[in-house]
Specification:
- Helix content is 33%, strand content 24%.
- The chain contains 19 helices and 27 strands.
- The strands form 7 sheets. A 9-stranded mixed beta sheet has the order 2-1-13-12-14-15-16-17-18, with helices on both faces. A 5-stranded parallel beta sheet has the order 4-3-5-8-9, sandwiched between helices. Strands 19-20-21-22 form a 4-stranded antiparallel beta sheet.
- A hairpin with a 5-residue loop joins β21 and β22.
Length: 554
C-alpha cells in the first residue's frame, strides 16, 4: 500500500464489492474496453483534429511504453500541468496504463505551487506545454527540477522542447524499443490510488486527495448515469480539464466510457464557444455559475443554434435559481442540473426527471444509495429535516483521509470515517438538499451567526447588482461585521442605504444587513472557479486600517 495513503477499512471494502459499486479492476481496463467497443467512433475533437477511439487507444499504449522506457513504474507519481489539449487525455490514460499516479495541477499554478506538489508527492515526472498564455513552462520546470529531490523527467507538449526535456510529439511519432507485451505484464491494484486530485479550498496550497481505481471508476459511472449520456452525445470541455468536475464528475471519463465525444476548448469566450456548440452539436455543458452568467449576458448569444444542448450541469458555486431559469430560457431544449460535489468524493445531482421546482431550488441528492450523509449541529448531533447542519459524509467514492496529512485528518474525519466537509446544507422533506454556504462563510457579529450566502442570494435579486460577495470585516466592539463587495450592472448605481432598504423590503433581520458596501469591477476567482473571499477580507481589513490611521492623523 502506498505510504501516506489512507485506505478504506475491510468491512466497507467487502460491502462496496458485494453491492457492485467496486468491480476490482484498474481504471484503464474500463477505457481499454471502450477503445475496442467504439473503435471507429470519434472520441476527441480539438480544433480541426478528430481522434477515434482506436487512435486514442494506440496513442495511449505508445506513450505508456515510452514512459516505461524512462523507468517509471506502478505507484510512482507525476505532476500533470496541461491545458485542454488532446495530449492531456493521452498522457492521463498512459499514466493509468502503467499505474503511475498523476497529480492534477491547474493551468494557473506556478512555481510556488508546483514546487510544493513535486516535493510533496515525490514526483519523478512533470508534464507541461512548451508555452501557454505567453508563459515559458520549460524554463520554470527546469528551475523546479534543479531544487527537487525526486524530479527526473520533464515531458513537454508542443514544438519548442529543450534538449533536457522529453518531447511528447516526438514520442507520438516514434516506435518505442519495448514490446507492447510489457504493458500486459504490469499488475495494478484497484485498491491503490490512480489519481491525485487537489482540494478546492480558496486559502493556502491545496491538500492532496488520493482517488483509488475502484472509487474513481464508480464516481464517473454513477454520476454519468444521472445525466443521460448516449453514444451520439458530445460534452463541451471548457473548464480546466484537470479539475475533478470536467475530468470525472461525470466529465470526460463518463463520456468516453459510453462511446461519446469530448470536444476540447482552450477558451471560454462566448464568441468562440457558441459557434463550437452549434458546429459540434454539443449535448452537455459542464460549467461554473460565473461562466454561464458571462455567456448569458453576451449580446450575440441569440445568433447561434444552441438547440442541441440537452443538459447543463453547473458546479463549484451555488447556481442561483434565477440564473437557472435564464439558462433554460436561452438553451430552450435543455434542463439544468446543479451539481454539488467535491474532489474528496460525494456528488449530489438534481435528477432530470425531478419537478422543475426541485431542479431550480435544490442540488438534488447523492448519486449512490450508500452515500451516508449526516447534517449535524455544533455538537455533532444530527439536526431535524429542514434545519441547517454541517455535512458529514462517507461512502464508496469519498476519501478516508487526505494524502500524507495525519494531523489534518485527525481534525477533519470522525473516528468512524465520516468526512467533515464544512459545508452547511438543509435537507427537504422530499429528500433533496439545499446548500446554504460554508461554516467558514459565516460572519460572527457579536455572537450572532450570519450566513453570507443567505444575504448574497437576496442581494442578487436587486436590479442594480450583477454579482456580490459578502465577507467579514473586523470590528472592535462586535468582532466582525459584514462588508458587501458588489459588481454593478452597466449604468446602475447603489448606495448602502439603498441596499438596506432593499433588504428591509424582503424581511431580512436587521443584524444580517451589510454595514459597508464596496463597489468593484470583478471578484477575485481561484483556479477552481470559486470566489476568493479571503482576498476580499484582507482588502477590507487593510482599507479599514488605512482609514483608521488617517482619522488618527498618523
Amino acid at each position: 500500500m502506498l505510504a501516506g495513503f489512507v485506505p478504506y477499512p475491510p468491512d466497507l471494502i467487502a460491502r462496496y464489492r458485494a453491492k457492485g459499486y467496486w468491480q476490482d479492476r484498474p481504471l484503464i481496463d474500463h477505457f481499454r474496453e471502450a477503445f475496442a467497443r467504439y473503435a471507429d467512433r470519434v472520441a476527441i475533437v480539438s480544433g480541426g483534429e478528430r481522434v477515434t477511439y482506436r487512435q486514442l487507444g494506440e496513442r495511449v499504449d505508445l506513450l505508456a511504453l515510452h514512459l516505461l522506457e524512462l523507468g517509471l513504474k506502478p505507484l510512482d507519481s507525476a505532476v500533470m500541468h496541461l491545458p485542454n489539449i488532446p495530449e492531456f487525455v493521452y498522457l492521463y490514460l498512459a499514466f493509468q496504463r502503467i499505474g503511475v499516479i498523476p497529480l492534477m495541477a491547474l493551468p494557473p499554478h506556478r512555481q510556488h505551487e508546483i514546487g510544493h506538489f513535486v516535493d510533496f508527492i515525490d514526483a519523478e515526472a512533470y508534464v507541461i506545454p512548451d508555452h501557454w498564455g505567453g508563459f515559458n513552462f520549460p524554463e520554470m520546470a527546469m528551475s523546479i527540477r534543479d531544487k527537487a529531490k525526486t524530479l527526473k523527467h520533464i515531458l513537454v507538449t508542443g514544438s519548442e522542447v529543450p534538449d533536457a526535456c522529453a518531447s511528447v510529439s516526438r514520442w507520438l511519432a516514434t516506435e518505442p524499443s519495448l514490446p507492447s507485451s510489457r504493458l500486459d505484464q504490469l499488475e495494478l491494484d484497484p485498491l491503490e490510488p490512480c489519481t491525485f486530485q487537489l482540494s478546492g479550498g480558496t486559502t493556502g496550497i491545496p491538500k492532496v486527495i488520493a482517488r483509488t481505481h475502484n472509487d474513481y471508476v464508480y464516481n464517473s459511472k454513477a454520476s454519468g448515469a444521472v445525466i443521460d449520456i448516449h453514444p451520439d452525445d458530445a460534452l463541451l470541455v471548457v473548464l480546466p480539464i484537470a479539475h475533478n468536475f470536467p475530468l470525472a464528475s461525470a466529465g470526460i471519463q463518463a463520456f468516453l466510457l459510453q462511446g461519446a465525444r469530448i470536444v476540447l476548448s482552450t477558451t471560454t469566450r462566448p464568441a468562440d464557444v457558441m459557434p463550437l456548440i452549434e458546429r459540434e452539436r454539443i449535448t452537455h455543458l459542464e460549467i461554473v455559475p460565473a461562466l454561464i452568467i458571462r455567456w448569458l449576458d453576451d449580446p450575440d448569444l441569440g445568433k447561434h443554434d444552441l438547440s442541441s444542448v440537452r443538459v447543463v450541469n453547473s458546479g463549484g458555486q451555488k447556481y442561483q435559481p434565477e440564473t437557472k431559469v435564464r439558462t433554460e430560457e436561452i438553451f430552450s431544449k435543455a434542463k439544468v442540473q446543479e451539481v454539488f460535489g467535491m474532489a474528496e468524493g460525494l456528488l449530489m445531482y438534481s435528477r432530470l426527471e425531478d419537478s422543475r421546482e426541485a431542479r431550480i431550488e435544490t442540488v438534488g441528492r447523492p448519486v449512490c444509495p450508500d452515500d451516508e450523509v449526516l447534517l449535524v449541529d455544533d455538537d455533532g448531533h444530527e439536526v431535524p429535516v429542514g434545519e441547517l447542519g454541517e455535512l458529514w459524509v462517507r461512502g464508496p467514492y469519498t476519501l478516508r483521509g487526505y494524502y500524507r496529512a495525519p494531523e489534518h485528518n485527525a481534525r477533519t474525519f470522525t473516528p468512524d470515517g465520516f468526512y467533515k466537509s464544512g459545508d452547511v446544507l438543509r435537507k427537504r422533506a422530499d429528500g433533496n438538499y439545499i446548500v446554504e454556504g460554508r461554516l467558514k462563510d459565516v460572519i460572527n457579529r457579536g455572537g450572532e451567526k450570519i450566513s453570507a450566502e443567505e444575504v448574497e442570494n437576496l442581494l442578487l435579486m436587486h436590479p442594480a447588482i450583477h454579482n456580490v460577495a459578502c465577507v467579514p470585516m473586523p470590528d472592535r466592539v462586535l468582532g466582525e461585521k459584514m462588508c458587501a463587495f458588489a459588481i454593478l450592472r452597466p449604468g446602475r448605481s447603489i448606495t448602502l442605504a439603498d441596499m438596506t432598504a432593499f433588504l428591509n423590503e424582503h424581511g431580512l433581520a436587521r443584524y444580517k444587513h451589510p454595514e459597508r458596501l464596496e463597489i468593484i469591477a470583478e471578484l477575485p476567482i481561484s483556479g477552481f472557479g470559486k470566489v476568493q473571499k479571503n482576498v476580499l477580507t484582507a482588502q477590507i481589513t487593510e482599507k479599514l486600517k488605512a482609514e483608521s490611521s488617517t482619522a488618527a492623523g498618523v
